[in-house]
Amino acid sequence: MGKKKKKETNYQFAIEIAEGFYQTGLSVAKHSHEVKNDHGYIWIPPGVVNFSFATEILLKATIFYDLRQNPWGHKLYDLYQTLSEQTKQNIETSYKLYKKENIKVDSLPAYKIAISVGDNNTDRSKESNFNEIKNLLEIHSDSFENWRYVYEFGEEGYCYEFDFKAMDAFYRALSDSLKVMLKKEKASFEMKMV
């Protein structure tokens, strides 16, 4: 088997693709909230996965434009921690504004899913506080992976949660930060419909 070739990443293109995953996740999240039957839950994991992947891509682009490094991994909290303090501060400020704005949005739900196996019935009713990005990303860091495989559980079971309103505020804060960074960049890709 041959050696894997290094791939180049065009982060301006990645930002455009992230927006597609974000819009898909947003649409599915709203739909999951609208469905009023026993199977409405089937929309939650696809919404979470799209939302999480969009956020991951946007975080990676932010890291690239902030530090000129090519990031690696899926864990949102780890990716966020690599950003410069100034960029994190800018994102935190925008996040708090969007968080206040999203309080009025009824169409974006929050979900918590708990699977208990056997006698492992721990109290999972504690409400999460996402006023700080650190808290948000610690809970949502593995959402891309966890919710893709929500149907798999071991002896311990699990408790996953996803707050679409809070993650929407974080995504939009990242987007704002990137817009400022990209004002200095020339377009580096072009796409034509054929």
Shape: globular
Number of structural domains: 1
User: Beta-sheet strand percentage?
Assistant: 5-15%
The computed structural class is mainly alpha
* Rounded average pLDDT: 85
| Total number of helices | 7
Instruction: Quote the distance from N terminus to C terminus.
Output: 35 Å
| Low-pLDDT stretches | none
Structure, explained:
The protein is mainly alpha-helical and 194 residues long. Helices cover 54% and strands 6% of the residues. The chain has one domain. Strands 1-2 form a two-stranded antiparallel sheet. The chain is globular and about 50 Å long.
Question: Topology, please?
Answer:
Blueprint: H1 11-34, H2 44-67, H3 76-81, H4 85-102, E1 110-115, H5 133-140, H6 143-148, E2 158-163, H7 164-182
Antiparallel strand pairs: 1-2
Brief description of this entry?
The chain has 194 residues and is mainly α. 54% of the residues lie in helices and 6% in strands.
List its salient traits:
globular; 2 strands; 194 residues; 7 helices; two-stranded antiparallel ribbon; mainly alpha
